[in-house]
Design goal:
- The chain has three domains: 171 residues, no CATH class; 134 residues, Sandwich (Immunoglobulin-like), CATH 2.60.40; 140 residues, Sandwich (Jelly Rolls), CATH 2.60.120.430.
- It has one helix and 33 strands.
- The strands form seven sheets. Strands 2, 3, 4, 5, 6, 7, 8, 9 and 10 form a nine-stranded antiparallel sheet that branches. A five-stranded antiparallel sheet has the order 15-16-13-18-19, with no helix packed on it. A four-stranded antiparallel sheet has the order 11-12-17-14, with no helix packed on it.
- The protein binds calcium ion (2 copies).
- The site of one calcium ion has 9 residues, from strand 11.
Length: 473
């Protein structure tokens, strides 16, 4: 009977010298230069403020309409005397239809009282609730900061002729009030609003130094209105080299600016950037960020260019250590045969294995297999014992598939291969600039075949199988 113990990577001397070569590359690239890109302050939406304020069933105790034209802690304060209304009128000072109302302030009163925000509908000659809730302003000792979308057909809420449109907003208190209740307005304005968000992914992690990967950046506009003047930045991390993008001149790889321009509500735009981790980055993690840098509309839950919020997204890739390696291949035992006076065969198993070339050098590699001549074995090789003739052991032709983003797959040498012929047999080879990446090799799991001649002697035999990966085309 014969048994074949698992062995692998016996010929690791050349692999080890290759690893030292990769380490010296790492030192060469440590002197990389730093690039800093600065941007001017982003453009924000323009706010339009009231030109007059009127109050019913209440008394203005402090401030005028000019008090409410910025968030500065100077309040227009209305003291309740009944179910008050505060009407803010924007007369002939709005150049275009707006889609949202901004408010900073508070109601200090009875928490059970309904205090709601309304806008005048010139089409129906009635007040429309901006929100469905009636308690838009609950009792609070600290200011609220609201950005509310105006519902329905926006043009119904504006009258006159652009650029001199008029609109009216009202705070409506429907309960009977007392003189101990106050409504504070720090700022109220009409503006435009678009809720932008960014999603970002990367095609490969882990990634291979020297192999392309793709960043996908999607910017979405949750509305309620279209965004204009939209710019997204994506500056590649240090150690990554830009290759290409799928939007052409809209993305400037030097500044990292993607000029999106206009983006309608409920729509999105996508940019794919192809880049390569430089050799020397092995063992590190590269995180790439994209964010909205500028837009003309107010975003209710995030701000441009602050590396935070839902319009800021990141994608990270770990980079493989820059080595050439392969996983273990395990060879099973043969089951053994009963001699019958005729030639016969026996089979044993071989497991799949994986080659990883993360050096980024494009030096290529070869996988070789060699089995020693079968020799009599009984707890150890028997001196001057029986042997089987050379060239009796064959393995099938493996198949290979790239695992993830990889350069052209290596060539497979046509098999089956006789592996105990006295010299190493090349079963796969990656030419220069091929085979960079991770490759999974599979083969017939019971395909290792031993030919046993009719003249064989009955005893136990053993052979050592060595599978090696070596650098070079
Ligand atoms: Ca947002
Ligand atoms: Ca932000």
């Amino acid at each position: 009977m014969s048994d074949l113990p698992a062995t692998e990577n016996r010929r690791d001397q050349r692999c080890r010298s290759q690893k030292f070569s990769a380490a010296s590359l790492l030192i060469l690239f440590l002197g990389i230069s730093l690039t800093v890109t600065l941007f001017s302050s982003p453009a924000f939406a323009t706010d339009y403020f009231p030109t007059s304020v009127s109050v019913s069933n209440g008394t203005i105790t402090s401030g005028t309409y000019s008090s409410v034209q910025s968030v500065n802690g100077t309040y227009l304060i209305v003291q309740e005397t009944g179910s008050f209304q505060i009407t803010y009128t924007f007369t002939n000072n709005i150049p275009a239809i707006q889609n949202s109302i901004m408010f900073t302030g508070r109601y200090q009163g009875n928490s059970t009282h309904a205090v709601e925000l309304q806008i005048y509908n010139y089409s129906t000659s009635s007040w429309t609730n901006v929100r469905s809730a009636t308690k838009d302003f609950g009792n609070s000792s600290t200011d609220y900061n609201f950005a509310w979308a105006i519902p329905g057909t926006l043009s119904n809420y504006f009258t006159g002729t652009a650029p001199n449109l008029t609109a009216r907003i009202r705070v409506n208190h429907t309960s009977s009030g007392t003189s101990s209740h106050y409504f504070y307005t720090d700022m109220i304005s009409l503006s435009t609003m678009a809720d932008l968000s960014i999603a970002k992914t990367v095609s490969s992690t882990p990634a291979i130094a020297g192999n392309d990967l793709i960043y996908t950046i999607t910017v979405s506009n949750g509305g309620p209105n279209g965004a204009t003047g939209l710019v997204v930045t994506d500056i590649l991390p240090i150690g990554m080299t830009y290759v290409s993008n799928d939007l052409g001149a809209a993305y400037n790889s030097g500044t990292g600016r993607w000029t999106v321009g206009s983006l309608a509500a409920s729509s999105s735009a996508t940019l794919n950037i192809t880049a390569t981790p430089n050799t020397g980055t092995g063992g590190t993690t590269k995180t790439n960020a994209a964010q909205v840098a500028a837009v003309n509309q107010y975003d209710p839950d995030s701000s441009p260019n602050d590396s935070a919020g839902d319009e800021y997204g990141t994608a990270a890739s770990t980079i493989y250590a820059e080595t050439l390696s392969m996983s273990a291949m395990t060879v099973g035992d043969f089951s053994g045969v009963t001699l019958s006076g005729s030639a016969t065969t026996d089979t044993a198993t071989m497991t799949p294995f994986t080659v990883t070339d993360a050096r980024g050098t494009g030096a290529g590699w070869n996988v070789t297999v060699q089995a020693s001549q079968f020799a009599e074995y009984s707890g150890g090789y028997v001196p001057s014992g029986r042997i089987l003739s050379l060239s009796s052991l064959s393995m099938p032709q493996p198949t290979v598939a790239a695992n993830g983003t990889s350069s052209p797959v290596p060539a497979i040498t046509t098999g089956p291969h006789i592996i105990d012929s006295g010299s190493a047999v090349k079963i796969a080879s990656a030419a220069a600039n091929n085979g960079k990446g991770v490759y999974d090799f599979t083969q017939d799991p019971a395909g290792l075949t031993l030919s046993i001649p009719a003249s064989a002697y009955s005893t136990s035999y053993r052979s050592e199988v060595t599978i090696s990966i070596v650098s070079g085309p």
